[in-house]
Every structure is written in C-alpha cells, then in structure tokens.
Amino acid sequence: AVADADAMYQYDEVAQAGIQQQKPWVDVPHYFKNVKISALALLKMVVHARSGGTIEVMGLMQGKTDGDTIIIMDAFALPVEGTETRVNAQADAYEYMVQYAQTNKQVGRLENVVGWYHSHPGYGCWLSGIDVSTQMLNQQYQEPFLAVVIDPTRTVSAGKVEIGAFRTYPMDYKPPDEPPSEYQTIPLNKIEDFGVHYKQYYSLDITYFKSTLDSHLLDLLWNKYWVNTLSSSPLLGNRDYVAGQVSDLAEKLEQAETQLAHSGRIGGFFMPPQRKKEEESQLAKITRDSSKITVEQVHGLMSQVIKDILFNSVTS
Amino acid sequence: EHSLLRQISSLVRRLPAIDSTKFQDDFLMEYNDTLLMTYLATITKC
Amino acid sequence: MEVEIKQAELVEQFVVLARSARGRAAAELITHATSHPSLFAFSELLSLPHILELQGTEHAGSLELLRLFAHGTWTEYKNNIHELPPLQPQQELKLKQLTVMTLAETAKVLQYDLLMQQLDVSNVRELEDLLINDCMYAGIVRGKLDQRRRCFEVQFAAGRDLRPGQLENMISTLATWLGNTENLLLTIQEKIKWADSMSDIDRKHKKEVEDKAEELRKSI
C-alpha cells in the first residue's frame, strides 16, 4: 500500500505525452468519470477557499490523467477574486499562470495544469452560467481540463469538505437523463443560474489519496485536530451562515405564497396539472431545505450537549 | 506507578472543562435557538 | 504530559543513585534532586527504603525537605523554616514552581494578588517573569496572562505527586466520570432506538396513505 500510495507521485512524461497525442476524450463527451485528489491539493484548495470568506476565489490544479481518471497532485491560488462577477477571472492571471507553470518545470515539477477550482461560499457546489462557459472554453483549448468547486461555508457546517468536480458537455450535445444528484439547497438569488445550466455539465466521482509522508505529518497533527474538533461548535462558527439560510428560506416562502395567491385568483382548477406539480415541488423543496437547516442545528446542539455531559458534569 | 498517577491527577483536575454562568447562559441560548428553529421547520412542514 | 516524558529519565537516574546511597550521601542526593531544574516529581525517591531510613537520624531534615518538595508549598516552607535545612536559590525557585502547580490544580483562574502573596513576589513584573520564564517555558503550566483583570487563566497544569489520601478522591472522581459516560452512552443508544422506531412508524403511515390514495384513484 505504501509503494502504491507513493507511486502515484511519479510523473511519466512519455506516457502523458502519449495520452496527449491520442486524445481519447475527444469523441466521448463522458470520457472522464473519476477524480483523484491528493491530500496536499485538497488542503491547499480548502484553506484558500476559506481564506476568501464570502468572496469567491480561484486557482489552478496540476496533475495528470490515468485512463478515465484525472489525478490532481497539487493546486495553487491565482491572484484574482470574484469569479461569479467576472466573465473570465482567469484572464487577469494569464501572465501569472504562464510564469508559474514555466517556473514549475524548471524546478522539476513536470505536472501540467489539468483544471481550475473556485469557491461558492455558502451556496453549494455546482457550475453557474459563467462557470459553464469558462469550462467549455478550457475544454476546447486546454484538455484535459477539470472544474472543481468548493463551498467553504458548508464545509465548516457539515464537518466534511463540500466539494464537486465537473466537466461540461460539448455545446450541442444532448446528455442522457442523469440520475438526480444529491439534493442541495440553492439560495433564491442563485436558483435561476443553477436551473438553466445544470444539464450542460456532469459531476465526477472524487476520491482522495495521500503519501506516506502526508500520513506521518497528519498523524502528528492528530491531537491538534481533536482539540480543534472538540473545542469548536458549528452552532457558534456558523451563526451568520444559518441566519442567511433562514432569511433565504423566508424569501422563498414569500415567493411561493405570492405565486400560490396569484394562481388562487385565476382559479386553481384552470391551472394545468404540470404547473400545480411545480408549485407543490417548490413548496416541498422549501420544506426540505428547512428540515436540512434544522437537522444541522440539532446535530450541532447534540454535540454540545454530549460534550457538556462528558466534560462539565464531573467536578474533581 | 507515580508518573501515571500524576498524569491522571492533572487530567482529572481539568474537570469540569468549563463551568461558568456565562457558559450556562450561552448554552441555554443555543438550546432555545435550536428549539425555535425546530419549531419553525415543523410549522414550515405544515 | 510533556513534563512527565522529559523528567522520566531524570527520575530513573536519581532512583538508581538512591538505591546505593545511605546517610549523608542520601541527604546530598536529595539536595541534588530538589535543585535540578527539570525535575518536578519526588514520590519515586520518597518511596525508597534508604531514603526513608533518614527518619530519626541527623539527616531527618533532608527527608522532611523531600516530603515538602513532593507535596508542600512555599508558604508551608516559611511556616516550618526552623525545622528544615536552608534552601539554595535553585531549590527556592523550584519550590515556587511547585507552588504554582498546586495553585493551578485548585483553581482555573489565579488572581495575581493570591500568586504574589503565596510566592513572596513584590511586583507584577517579577510575577509575570516567573510565570512565563520559569513555569510556562518549563512546561509545568499552560495558560493566558490577563493583565487587565490581573489574573492568570490556567489551561493546563502538570500533575504534582499525590498527597496521602488523594488517591481515593481521584478514584471516586474517575468512577463518577465513568458512570456519567456510561449513562450518556445508554441515553444515546435509547435515542437511536427511538429514532428508528419513529421512522418505522412514519414509513408505515406514509405507505398506508399511499395505499389509500391508490384505492381511491382506482375507485374513481
């Protein structure tokens, strides 16, 4: 296992050049299905995303491909922000990217850039319209190329990294009906963007790997990790995020109520069944979102109650 | 073993980890916030 | 616990030496042990027969001193100064460090006034130097100095040697802790059972509703 874990870190330039020649992904829109991310790259991306707070940040990922798997070895931040508000934030950083890639080669880091990552603080992991067009562009000129999205806010609240890896389909490609991906709450101010584009891309399965050195270093941090875990509470760390979610929920309820009231005036029986279905599914989604928020709160409280009983109920 | 006894003594003396009125007030407020959210979610369900 | 790891080797050395030392040599050894900058544990020495033999001899004062370093404080030394041998500066400093450890065991927030009175320190600057340089850097306590509220918030204090009678107290505290933890575990298991049964009931209810709706649909 040790040899395998570390073998991943060897870069076979000839093999990679061969793959680049064959371009097996050209004819198969769904070619890449899996992503393997190194512990180092994951940590760097999550720390960078969290450092951005509520601002979207972005960076590039270096690695290689192995069959239908894209392997991310490392990642580096780009000096840009606000990916959602700019057409293509990467444009600002081209010079930086080129220099970084060249310098890397000079120091023997042969991996090429194989993708970009950016953060969606508080509104989940999916591709917006701008993201889809940026990724399509990258897949046209920089294959193999992957888009990774991280939600640092939900990472803290869920206690695990909220991350998604995506690839876009060619412009005129009609994808087969996808099985519904894991449900996630989309804030009202983003729902339009989410709804329009979600058929233009697909998500890949993500697994992680680490080297023996990573394992040793992470073991050394084990106590610190536990002290931080035991001494932090999502109830405290996530207050403004939860408040934002509840206010988003209230807006959605307002909107649903307006629509229901509106459809009530023109007489429910005239409403086509499809429309009725939509109203219900919208309300069902709101109910689901509110249950999700509450479940997270109750989990946070449960951990507080358990810690209180364990560590505060005994006086020495 | 004296060394082990000293370590246990050091650990046991750290209990309770935190025991102040301010903590109790905060804790109770968190409790009530969560109960309120649960109530809101139940109403939303209805 | 780093303190224990650091001093384990030292304790071993002194115990080996003490096994072959008698009388004056044993008294000298006690002076070395109570002067060594990194040693804060004395029970092992105190339980050795050659050391206990000093009782009733001309070196009984050294044995009393060792007992004081194992369990006592600076104030106790001052109260019994006539029956104990005079302290060298290193021993004085060590006894003050041990006093801080004892105070840190009893309270989580130590007022500067209490510390200055217990350690015979005349000003805050000297007290903070003692706490930072001789206690926190030595690893015997960890915490935060709050100048505004003039207090030292203790986050960790290495354990001192157990005084006679403390063992029972510690055992009962651990037993209580164990009991609480077991009760908590039982409560969690009950809650899990309750949640499972509620979700079964919910699922059954949902199925009944769907069956009824299906029947109605058929009948219509």
Automatic annotation (TrEMBL), chain B:
Top-rank lineage group of the source organism: Eukaryota
Cell compartment(s), UniProt: Cytoplasm; Nucleus
Function recorded in the entry: Component of the COP9 signalosome complex (CSN), a complex involved in various cellular and developmental processes.
Similarity field: Belongs to the peptidase M67A family. CSN6 subfamily.
Name used for this protein in its record: COP9 signalosome complex subunit 6
Origin species: Marchantia polymorpha subsp. ruderalis
Shown segment, full-protein numbering: 226 to 271 of 300
